[in-house]
């Protein structure tokens, strides 16, 4: 069948030419085309675009003032960008270690990567967001979309909570605040493999890996 021949050709050599031949498999073609254009793959459809904030001087400027991992991310990117590698992959997890999806980070990780996912893919915002630098992420989000993020609790996981203000909320004790850390540690095992792939294969590989994980 022509569609199967086209699929085999795409798997053998993934590029724009072989992708265009997958129109005989509309559902697969549209997914791959979207991932190629956006570099993202989420189980929830995109519900709105990220607005521009012209009155915020440093909006969408790379976060260079983040202490700890932020500085290291920027430093490492300066090294491996010379090898034509992207800044990394951000994965969104629920507290049950189920992956919501992922997207490619062009440069080093920053607050905008988390803001972008939450605002564009969640029609109803989650009740809480657990992130290493939640203390800085909260003001970043509230400054841009205060109405959307008004009722969200921004929390730091237990692993990174040393030296931070801790809230005695019994309801939070049942949350697995380290779910993302555990999930990301598993993804670290395929990091080297992905570094040798082009965007097509890397996206397919990550998607398949995370589908099996879920």
Task: Give a structural overview.
The chain is mainly α and 214 residues long. The protein is 45% helix and 10% strand. The chain is built from nine helices and five strands; from the N terminus they run H-H-H-E-H-E-E-H-E-H-E-H-H-H. A three-stranded antiparallel sheet has the order 1-3-2, sandwiched between helices. Helix 5 packs parallel to helix 6. The two termini are 32 Å apart.
How many angstroms separate the termini? Answer: 32 Å
Count of DSSP-assigned helices: 9
Helix/sheet category:
mainly alpha
Radius of gyration: 19 Å
Instruction: Characterize the overall form.
Output: globular
Q: Average pLDDT, to the nearest integer? A: 78
How many runs of DSSP E, i.e. beta strands?
5
Strand portion: 5-15%
Largest sheet: 3 strands, antiparallel
Poorly predicted runs: 72-77
Helical content stands at 40-55%
Topology as a string of helices (H) and strands (E): HHHEHEEHEHEHHH
Biggest β-sheet: strands ordered side by side in the sheet: 1-3-2
């Amino acid at each position: 069948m022509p569609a199967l021949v086209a699929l085999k050709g795409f798997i053998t050599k993934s590029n724009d030419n072989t992708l265009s031949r997958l129109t005989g498999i509309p559902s697969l073609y549209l997914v791959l085309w979207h991932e190629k254009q956006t570099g993202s793959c989420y189980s929830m459809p995109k519900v709105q675009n990220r607005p521009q904030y012209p009155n915020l001087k440093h909006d969408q400027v790379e976060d260079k003032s983040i202490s700890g991992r932020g500085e290291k991310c920027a430093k490492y990117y300066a090294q491996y960008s010379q090898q034509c590698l992207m800044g990394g992959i951000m994965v969104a997890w629920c507290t049950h270690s189920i992956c919501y999806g992922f997207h490619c980070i062009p440069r080093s990780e920053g607050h905008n990567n988390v803001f972008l996912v939450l605002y564009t893919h969640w029609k109803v915002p989650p009740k809480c967001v657990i992130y290493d630098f939640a203390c800085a992420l909260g003001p970043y989000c509230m400054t841009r979309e205060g109405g959307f993020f008004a009722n969200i609790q921004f929390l730091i996981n237990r692993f990174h909570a040393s030296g931070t203000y801790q809230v005695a909320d019994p309801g939070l004790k049942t949350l697995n605040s380290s779910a993302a850390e555990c999930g990301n540690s598993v993804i670290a095992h395929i990091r080297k493999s992905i570094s040798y792939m082009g965007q097509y294969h890397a996206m397919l590989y990550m998607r398949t890996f995370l589908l099996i994980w879920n």
